[in-house]
């Protein structure tokens, strides 16, 4: 089973400032076809998860461009260029390369 | 628009059974694999099960294997999860979610439902 490790687990930020969340996998997430199946989800308080980023760096429809994903192999990052109040949420990375099982990181709580 | 609506949650005694449903709309349900993901109170996300678009392939987390069964009825655009021998640590909000396929690989959830809560307690 691939273990996903996020850091930090809690991230205090200031409105308008950047934020960065790290996600590391216990083995490379590069699939045989060359794709890397690493996704990021946002879960606002009291809401269901919402996918923000798929395959490392592709933003889902409707996701503001202040969100960006990067990384390769075993190290990945979600960045918010300028944090807004609506970004308060828990963020999860998840790997879809080596399944079953699909595995999530522990979650990072973004707080203003 | 794409919509997933879970139902069937509730309070159940340890050892008993429960069946969850997830009604899908806004997309061609029969073309997509579907997932169940759960979240214990105050905890993170845990993948539970996936069923292929044609129901031929089913995979489960070790924590539920042998106790939970995922199924689908494409005529009703509905996903199910039959949960048997329920334990206290199955207490969670259960989400259904649509899978993503890029032509080569199924690689996880995109759209999620609002969840249904299961509480296992005597």
What does this molecule look like?
- The complex is a heterodimer of chains A (112) and B (122).
- Helices cover 0% and strands 46% of the residues of chain A.
- Chain A contains no helices and 11 strands.
- In chain A, strands 2, 4, 5, 6, 9, 10 and 11 form a 7-stranded mixed beta sheet that branches.
- With 122 residues, chain B is mostly beta strands.
- Chain B contains no helices and 11 strands.
- In chain B, strands 2, 4, 5, 6, 9, 10 and 11 form a 7-stranded mixed beta sheet that branches.
- Chain B is globular, with a radius of gyration of 14 Å.
- The N and C termini of chain B lie far apart (40 Å).
- The mean pLDDT of chain B is 96.
Give structural attributes.
heterodimer; A: 112 residues; seven-stranded mixed sheet; 0% helix; 46% strand; globular; B: 122 residues; mainly beta; 11 strands
Overall, the morphology of chain A is globular
Spatial gap, N to C terminus of chain A: 34 Å
Low-pLDDT stretches of chain A: none
Q: What's the overall geometry of chain B?
A: globular
Largest interface: A-B, 28 and 26 residues
End-to-end CA span of chain B: 40 Å
Largest sheet of chain A: 7 strands, mixed
Tally of separate helices of chain A? 0
Cα-based radius of gyration of chain A, to the nearest Å: 13 Å
Tally of individual helices of chain B: 0
Average predicted local confidence, pLDDT of chain A: 97
What is the string of helix and strand elements of chain A?
Answer: EEEEEEEEEEE
Helix content of chain B: under 10%
Please give the share of residues in helix of chain A.
under 10%
Major sheet description of chain B: 7 strands, mixed
Portion of residues in beta strands of chain B equals over 45%
Described by its quaternary structure, the protein is: heterodimer
């Amino acid at each position: 089973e691939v273990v996903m490790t996020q850091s930090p687990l809690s991230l205090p930020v200031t409105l308008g400032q950047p934020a960065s969340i790290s996600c590391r996998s216990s083995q490379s997430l590069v699939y045989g076809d060359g794709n890397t199946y690493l996704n990021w989800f946002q879960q606002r308080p009291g809401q269901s998860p919402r996918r923000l980023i798929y395959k490392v760096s592709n933003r889902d429809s409707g996701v503001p461009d202040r969100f960006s994903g990067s990384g390769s192999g075993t190290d990945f990052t979600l960045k918010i260029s300028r944090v807004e109040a609506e970004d308060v949420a828990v963020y999860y990375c998840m790997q879809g390369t080596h399944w079953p099982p699909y595995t999530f990181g522990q979650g990072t709580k973004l707080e203003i | 628009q794409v919509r997933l609506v879970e139902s069937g949650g509730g309070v159940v005694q340890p050892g008993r059974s429960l069946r969850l449903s997830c009604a899908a709309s806004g997309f061609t349900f029969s073309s997509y694999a579907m997932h169940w993901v759960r979240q214990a109170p105050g905890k993170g996300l845990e993948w539970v099960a996936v069923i292929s678009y044609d129901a031929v392939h089913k995979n489960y987390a070790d924590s539920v294997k042998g106790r939970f069964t995922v199924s689908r009825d494409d005529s009703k655009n509905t996903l199910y999860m039959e949960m048997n021998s329920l334990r206290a640590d199955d207490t969670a909000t259960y989400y259904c979610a649509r899978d993503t396929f890029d032509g080569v690989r199924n690689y996880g959830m995109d759209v999620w439902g609002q969840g249904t809560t299961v509480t296992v307690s005597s």
